[in-house]
Write a structure and sequence with these properties.
The chain has two domains: about 130 residues, Alpha-Beta Complex (Aspartate Aminotransferase, domain 1), CATH 3.90.1150.10; about 260 residues, Aspartate Aminotransferase, domain 2 (3-Layer(aba) Sandwich), CATH 3.40.640.10. Helix content is about 40%, strand content about 15%. It has 14 helices and 17 strands. The strands form five sheets. It has a seven-stranded mixed sheet with strand order 4-10-9-8-7-5-6, with helices on both faces. Strands 13-14-17-16 form a four-stranded antiparallel sheet, with helices on one face. A two-stranded antiparallel ribbon has the order 1-2. β7, α7 and β8 form a beta-alpha-beta unit. α2 packs antiparallel against α10, α3 packs across α10 and α11 runs parallel beside α14. About 45% of the residues are buried.
C-alpha cells in the first residue's frame, strides 16, 4: 500500500477553529459526546450563511420566478438568476446560458442520458465509463443503452484504485459516442486525470460528461480548461442545501438537444397543435424550480470561494495524510483505494469485522462515518468485499477528528476482537 508523505502545512490564514464555528451542526453532541463528522462524501454540513439564505428567501422574498411583475417576484427572480451567475463563475463557464439547475447530479446525468442519449445514440454505438463510477453514472447509461441498442463498456481499475490508462486508451474507438467519467471517486478518493481523458476522447470524436459531485467541494473546477461537453455536480456536497444540482453544458450542445421535461417555463409558445421551446437554459427547467435552494447554493459557493480552494486543499491534504498514516497503524485495518492522486476519502476494512458493525460502534463514540457499498457496488466487487467503512473529510475536519476515529476503532477491537 502507498503511504504518501504529509504535504506542507496549510496557510496561516486558514483558521479551522473559526471555520468550524460557522457550522451550527458541528457544535452538537451525539450520544453524549462531541460530534465528529466524517461522512462528508455523502453530504457536507451547512454554514450559517447558507441557512440564513434559505430563511431569508422564505421570510421575505417567497414568490415564483420569471412570471410575476410584483416586487417579491422580481426580488426572487433577481436572486435566483444571481445564483446562476455565481455557479457560472464557480465552474468558469463561458455564459450563464450553460448553467442548468436540476435536483441533483443524478438528475443532471439522467437529463443528458435522455435528452442527448436518446437523440444521439444508435445501435452499435458505445458508451465508455470506468469501473469506479457511482451508480448515478452507471444506471442512466445502462438504461440509455437498453433504449437505443448502444453498448456500455467499462474501463478497468487497478489494485490501487487508478484507471488502467492503457486499457482506457484501447477502449476509446470511433465507436465511442460518450465518455462518462467521475472526476473523483466517492468510494476510493481517486482523482482521475480528466483533462487527459477529455483530450483522448476528443481524438475519437466522443462527447464527454464529467461527474464532479465529489471533486467540486475539494478543488477549483474550470470547464473551459477541462473542455468537457457536460459537467455535473450536486449542491449538498459543496456545503449547499439538498434538492439542488447543476448541469453545465456546452452551449452549442445544449442548443441542439431536445428538452428533457415538458411543462411551464420551458416553452416560448404553446398551441394545441405544437409548442416551441424557450431559450437556454430555461428549455431544460420545466415548472417551478427549486428557487430557495438555488439561492442558498449561490450562498454556499460564495462561502467556499471566500476561503479559497488553495487553502482548503492544503488543509484537507494535510489531514488526509495524517489520517492515512494513523489508520494504517490500526491492527488488521486495510485501506481500500491508495491511488497516488486522491483526495479526502479513506475507505477501509478491518479483518472480518463487518463495516456496519464498525459504523454502529464508532457512532456510539460520537463519530459519524459511512458504511456500505457507497452506491458503488462494482467497486466492492472489484476488491472482493461486500462493503467498506469510509471516513471522508471536509474543510472543517482536523487531526483531532482523526484521533477520535482511531480511538473509536480501538473500542471496536475491544468489543469485537
Amino acid at each position: 500500500m502507498r503511504i504518501h508523505p504529509a504535504p506542507a502545512a496549510p496557510p496561516a490564514i486558514f483558521d479551522v477553529a473559526a471555520i468550524r464555528a460557522l457550522f451550527p451542526a458541528l457544535q452538537q453532541q451525539v450520544h453524549g459526546k462531541p460530534l465528529v463528522y466524517l461522512d462528508n462524501a455523502a453530504t457536507t454540513q451547512k454554514p450559517q450563511a447558507v441557512i440564513d439564505a434559505l430563511v431569508s428567501y422564505y421570510a421575505h422574498d417567497n414568490a415564483n420566478v420569471h412570471r410575476g411583475v410584483h416586487a417579491l417576484s422580481e426580488r426572487a427572480t433577481a436572486a435566483f438568476e444571481s445564483a446562476r451567475k455565481t455557479v457560472q463563475r464557480f465552474v468558469n463557464a463561458r455564459s450563464d446560458r450553460e448553467i442548468v439547475f436540476t435536483r441533483n447530479a443524478t438528475e443532471s446525468i439522467n437529463l443528458v442520458a435522455r435528452a442527448w442519449g436518446d437523440w444521439q445514440l444508435n445501435a452499435g454505438d458505445e458508451v465508455l465509463i470506468t469501473a469506479m463510477e457511482h451508480h448515478s453514472n452507471i444506471v442512466p447509461w445502462q438504461m440509455a443503452c437498453a433504449r437505443t441498442g448502444a453498448i456500455l463498456r467499462v474501463a478497468p481499475i487497478d489494485d490501487y484504485g487508478d484507471v488502467v490508462m492503457d486499457e482506457f486508451a484501447r477502449m476509446l474507438t470511433p465507436k465511442t459516442r460518450m465518455l462518462a467519467v467521475t472526476h473523483m471517486s466517492n468510494a476510493l478518493g481517486t482523482i482521475n486525470p480528466v483533462g487527459d481523458m477529455v483530450k483522448m476522447a476528443r481524438s475519437v470524436g466522443a462527447t464527454v460528461l464529467i461527474d464532479g459531485s465529489q471533486a467540486a467541494y475539494h478543488q477549483a473546477v474550470d470547464v473551459q480548461a477541462l473542455d468537457p461537453d457536460f459537467y455535473v455536480f450536486t449542491g449538498h456536497k459543496v456545503y449547499g442545501p439538498t434538492g439542488i444540482g447543476v448541469l453545465y453544458g456546452r452551449e452549442s450542445v445544449l442548443q441542439a438537444m431536445p428538452p428533457f421535461l415538458g411543462g411551464g417555463d420551458m416553452i416560448s409558445s404553446v398551441t394545441f397543435e405544437k409548442s416551441e421551446w424557450n431559450e437556454l437554459p430555461y428549455k431544460f427547467e420545466a415548472g417551478t424550480p427549486n428557487i430557495a435552494d438555488a439561492i442558498a447554493l449561490g450562498a454556499a459557493l460564495d462561502f467556499v470561494q471566500s476561503i479559497g480552494f488553495d487553502a482548503i486543499g492544503a488543509h484537507e491534504s494535510a489531514v488526509l495524510a495524517y489520517a492515512t498514516a494513523q489508520l494504517s497503524a490500526v491492527p488488521g485495518l486495510k485501506i481500500i483505494g491508495t491511488a497516488k492522486h486522491k483526495a479526502s476519502v479513506v475507505s477501509f476494512v478491518i479483518d472480518d469485522i463487518h463495516p456496519h458493525d464498525i459504523g454502529t460502534i464508532v457512532d456510539r463514540e460520537g463519530v459519524a462515518i459511512r458504511t456500505g457499498h457507497h452506491c458503488a457496488q462494482p467497486v466492492m466487487d472489484r476488491y472482493g468485499i461486500p462493503a467498506t467503512a469510509r471516513a471522508s473529510l471536509a474543510m472543517y475536519n482536523t487531526t483531532d477528528d482523526v484521533d477520535a476515529l482511531v480511538g473509536a476503532l480501538a473500542r471496536v477491537r475491544q468489543l469485537l476482537g
